[in-house]
Amino acid sequence: MQSSKGTTVQGSNGHNNDDGSGNNTDDKSNVIPLRKPRRNKGHNADSAAKIRTTIMMGGTRRAPGASAHPPAINMPPMTKFLVITLVVIEAAMKLALDPVQQYWVISHFGFVPASYSSDAVFGWEAFLGPITYAFLHGGWPHVGLNVLMLMAFGTGLERWMGWKRLALLMIACSVIAAMIHLVFNIGSDNPVIGASGAISGMFAAAMVMLQQMQRFDTGRFGLLPFALVWVGISAVFGMIGGPGGESVAWIAHIGGFLAGLAFVGPVMRLKI
Questions:
Q1: For 166-199, what is each residue's pLDDT tens digit?
Q2: pTM
Q3: What domains, with CATH codes, occur in the chain?
């Protein structure tokens, strides 16, 4: 018997009931309608198993249109902006300006300790110098080394603290590094350029980050041994000099490193 609601099954004896007159009488009480099982829309057993596996493994679905192959160098936005800015400025200095124009830029936007002496006029150069000097470099080897270090330290720090805190930390380390250099070089007319002081502070902040994330064991002395090693390395580079024979402001490197250790905590507590 076929029901409008689905297939029916016969009585418990497996045959239709016969009243002896040759006519079959159906016992409706023995007719049990069966419904077709409903299928899960969009998923079957295999897809459900895959979903469970994805959840257990911590996987996530890729957004529509996203590439299946992420970029080899995946920097967050502020770090990428800083890297591009340093490279573009160095390219403009070398390709668009002659040596006289390059020196004018360095003498006005670099950090010149003599600008802060008692007989100097405090101009806009002295106001901007402690920040703008970090964006100027003395050649491609100089900017290339700082860019690599910025990519290494800035990427992890920005993902840990956010781009606003990273920018604020870099500015603070740059200014403190310049001020420490000023203390030991009062009256010097030699401009200081380069992001090494700021990046030294980022390196110190990165060590604090790794320590808090328990990525390495600092032992009973904490970060003090690492700080002493960095001071020693900076002093050695100061005595050796740069690749082109130029002097290295190694005291500024130490100042930036100490600023990174001192300011990473307060910067992380800022609600920005």
A1: 999 999 999 999 999 999 999 999 999 999 999 9
A2: 0.70
A3: 1-71 (no CATH), 78-269 (1.20.1540.10)
